[in-house]
Amino acid sequence: MHHHYLTAIEAALEAGKAINEIYQRPFEVEIKADNSPLTEADQKANGIINSFLEPTGIPIISEENKQLDYSERKDWETCWIVDPLDGTKEFIKRNGEFTVNIAQVYFGKPKFGVIYAPHTRELYFAEVAGEWAKKIDVPNSYGSLKELLESAVDISPKVDDKQMRIVGSRSHLNEDTKNFIEDIITPKEKEIVSKGSSLKFCLIAEGKADVYPRFAPTMEWDTAAGQAICEAVGVHVLALPANSLMSYNKEDLLNPWFLVTKEL
Predict the structure, then answer these.
(1) Burial (CB count within 10 angstroms: exposed 0-12, middle 13-18, buried 19+), residue 69
(2) How many whole angstroms separate alpha carbon 249 and alpha carbon 123?
(3) Distance between CA atoms of residues 124 and 1, nearest Å
(4) How many DSSP H helices and E strands does the chain contain?
């Protein structure tokens, strides 16, 4: 495994430790200019991840870093795309469904992704070109990173014969999503499966759901690592309405609506 991959995994695990410490005690919540919440966990995790990734010399796009103008970013061949705490709302609600997302992108396409859910200690990582994705249930204590990685198991998507499992929000399905779900033609029974943060991508990559329609705003750091994990196992993340693979380090870091599915 390339040392950059190991660096990203280590960064995610260390950030996760800091997030868990803050999660276990009272913490303050600030509201950012765009009305999204920010906690000290977001900032602490960001600092830790930057400290691991900066020595690689590869530029970083992170939700909590100041965004550089496209004129400075457009010639980057490779960059990191990071969300130090995806699912800040889940973190504040204390439902455990928050993640650390780290992806490496090459000419706009995800190359490698790491998603770590610190509360449940589930670690997912994948390499797109190698066509492998793995998961580890991280124990409370372990020896070296190498030892930990030896316990990884392969994940892959699976189809359920009886049910079409659709990833959605239990609490608020917007009109577009409702319509999309109603329009799916299938003899199977449709079932809504709910999860916070980038774990939605992992559900499909590991065969616990079949399709994830997203007709609501997301940013590149919400999806790059999840897309890497999905693409590594033959699941597509399609930008709508174009039906092309979603791309990264765009002039506008806002994603289009998208659909995650194994079927094309």
Answers:
(1) exposed
(2) 25
(3) 15
(4) 8, 15
Q: Residue 115: name the closest of 222, 39, 250 by CA.
A: 222
Residue range 3-154, CATH number: 3.30.540.10
* Token output for 146: 């190498």
The residues spanned by each domain of the chain are 3-154, 163-261
pLDDT value of residue 177: 92
Other C-beta atoms lying within 10 Å of the C-beta of residue 241: 8
Each residue's pLDDT tens digit, 25-84: 999 999 988 888 888 999 999 999 999 999 999 999 999 999 999 999 999 999 999 999
Listed residue (229, 214, 206, 2) closest to 110, CA to CA: 229
Going by C-alpha positions, the residue among 33, 28, 43 that lies closest to residue 92 is: 28
Q: Which residues of the chain have pLDDT under 50?
A: none
Is 163-261 in CATH node 3.40.190.80?
yes
Are the C-beta atoms of residues 257 and 221 closer than 8 Å to each other? no
Cβ neighbours for 173, distance < 8 A, ≥ 6 positions apart: 181, 192
